[in-house]
Structures are given as C-alpha cells and as structure tokens.
Description:
- The protein is mainly α.
- It is 59% helix and 10% strand.
- It has helices at 2-33, 35-40, 44-53, 75-105, 132-147, 150-163, 168-192, 197-207, 228-237, 243-264, and strands at residues 58-60, 112-114, 120-122, 217-219, 268-270, 274-281, 290-296.
Amino acid sequence: MTEIADLLLRANVVGAAAVIAVLVLRLPVRAALGPEAAYRLWGAPPLAILACLLPFKVAPVGTAALARLTPEHAAPILLGVWLAGAAVAVALLGRAQAVFLKAARKGLAGPAVVGVINPRILMPPDDGRYSQAERDLIRAHEREHIRREDHRAGALMALFQCLAWFNPLAHLAAHKARLDQELACDAAVLRRRPKDRALYARTLLKTQLAGAALPLGCYWPARAKHPLELRVELLRRGTRDGGLAGSLTIAAGLFTAAALATAAEPPLRYTPPDPIGIYDQQPPNGQMSVMLVTWKTSPAHR
C-alpha cells in the first residue's frame, strides 16, 4: 500500500508542476502562436504523469532516489480517504451530467456536444432566437469539436479531476483547459470561414447567457466562468495556428515535460546476487576447463 500511496503523491507533484508551467506559458504562447498552440500545451500534464508512472530507470542499491513520501502506517488511511473522495467526485460528476441532460430535454440547454464514445450535437431550441445562418455557425463549431475529439479530451479532464480531487491545481487546470479548448475551436472554425467573423461574435453574444455545466462533452460555458470579452477580442485579432514553428515548439515542450518527469522518478532498485561458491572442474586430456559459479538470490529476485 505504501508504494501505491507514494505513486499517487508523486504523480500529483509532477502533474502540479506541469500545470504550473502551462499556466505560466499559455498566455505568451497564445499571443505568439495562437489559441490552438496554447491549447496543445495542456498535453504536458498528462504526458508528464504518464512518464512519471512508467518504470524507465534501473539503478543499483545506493543510487540517490526520491525519499519515501508516505509513512508506512499512514498509507492505508490515505488510500481509503483518496478512494472515498474519488467516489464522491464521480458521483458529483454524474449528477452534473444528469442535470444538464434534464435541462436539455426541456430545451433549456445547448449548444453542446454530448457524449464521449458516440458524441451527438445538441442544438438550442428553434424558437427564433437564432437566425438560420447563426444556427449553421453553431453546428460548424460543434462539428469542429467532434473533428478535433475535444469531447474525449474533456472526459480525460474530468477523469483527472476525479482522481486528483484533493489537488486544487487539477480543478484550475480543467477550467483553464476548457477555456483554451473553446478558444482553439473558435480559431479553427474562423480559419475556414473568415468572412463570418462578425456573425460569429453576434452568435457568441446570444449563446454566452445560456447553458449549464457539462462534465462529459463540449459546451459554450455560461455566466462569468467563461469570459466573453476574451473570445470576442480574439475574434477581432484574427486567427492563426502557429504553423510548423508552433507545432515544433509545442512538441519540444511536451518532450521536455516528459523528460523532466522521468528524471524525477526514483530508479528501481537492483541488488546483484552474491556468489556463494566457485567450482573448477579439471578436464581430461588437456581440454578447456569449465568454471561453475553459483549465486545466492534473495526472494525478491526469484
């Protein structure tokens, strides 16, 4: 149990460091390379955690490693608390999803992409609030989410929130990542439809006041959680994706995050077995001698 608790704590420390790095870099990267490049930065935390969990290194006993993070007597208690908290987080996520779907059935939610495996587009009711051109633009936005598989990325964010429910940086990262996801989707749609910039802004003004939280899916978040001013300002500036330079920069950043996470992982301990006997058999007729060495192994190496 101690090893599992250490693994969870180490993954949270590494993930938190990656989140802090992304929070520092996302605004400069957005300004220099565009919203889509900034959104790709959020690949760093899960990649760093994965690199931390995989056992890449093997080193002999005596090599410096991270100290044990969890006292042995406290490990069962910590794991029990973590499992209970994760169960509560999953229950709250399911409740939020059910509330959204109930509102959608009443025509009080949308637009959104709902679902993870088989996503579907949820449109707002056709009550005259949106023109046909605005509804077409909403469909283009939601289809872009599906094309980019943002609904699956959102599910991954929700999973990390449940597993790291005690880590405030996990919840902050999920909120900021969803914001960057919407900005990146805006940029992708308008790159294909540059003449619809003014129409897009008007549609945002109508949609921003509608909707509710949707854990498993993509949505245009409501109220003050999703600053409308930022989206409209980015529409005014124009769209870009950073091109090859942006892609290479983000790839280098993700590789660095994985490398640093691997370096932070303590090496697996390996103890060479001790020899307990050497037998030298003398061959007849001057043939090659054979030396037999037997080794003593500990139960851990059997």
